[in-house]
Amino acid sequence: MHMNDVWSLPSRMMPFDDFMMLIIDQPEFIRSLVKMTVDAQIELAWQAAKTGVKFLYTGDDIAYNNGPMISPAVFREIFFPELKRIVRAYKDLGFLVIKHTDGNIMPLLDMYLEAGFDCLDPIDPIAGMDLEFMKKNYGDVISLKGNVNCATTLVSGSVDDVVSETKHCLRVAKGKTGYIASSSNSIHSSVKPENYRVMLEVIFEQGRYT
Q1: How far is 105 from 67, CA to CA, in rounded Å?
Q2: How far apart are CA 191 and CA 152, in angstroms?
Q3: Which residue of 38, 108, 133, 138 has the fewest C-beta atoms within 10 A of its own C-beta?
Q4: Distance, CA of 7 to CA of 23 (rounded, Å)
Q5: How far apart are CA 34 and CA 6, in angstroms?
């Protein structure tokens, strides 16, 4: 089930420029807004748990290709306490929780790890996020998902390009456990159907854990 954590819902409740300015000008108001949206999502997650949902996927993009939209210090002060609370609530309800965000999130990574997410998606290749580096350095504390480039390879690459990139992702990240092979974000309307099919075929043939 798609959910959110602490960024997307508050930032979309007003013009984004206003939201960013209020983080500086009225941080207590933003804290209260984040808390309100977290409370609402925890209630929704409680309802979802009763239906048999097993995984939650929080789609909160918070970074550009060159780094986060706000400084790590501001994120830690205003957003991190509620991030920990919502992830803990999700896990207390029995969910495995996948954290999604595009962009280069390395300056925030320590907080996402501390919050307790089970999996990080998509290790954005366009933003310079390196799957092999992430697996080597963090693969023992969090599972990884994604990395077949859906902006280039799956859109304009050849079938051979897709096969090569998918195999590379499996080779550097599969290990013994802890990797979900997929596109680097979504299967959007510009993705070639034949490339998507080939990616799936490689994953099904070579990506299974035994």
Answers
A1: 6
A2: 9
A3: 133
A4: 12
A5: 6
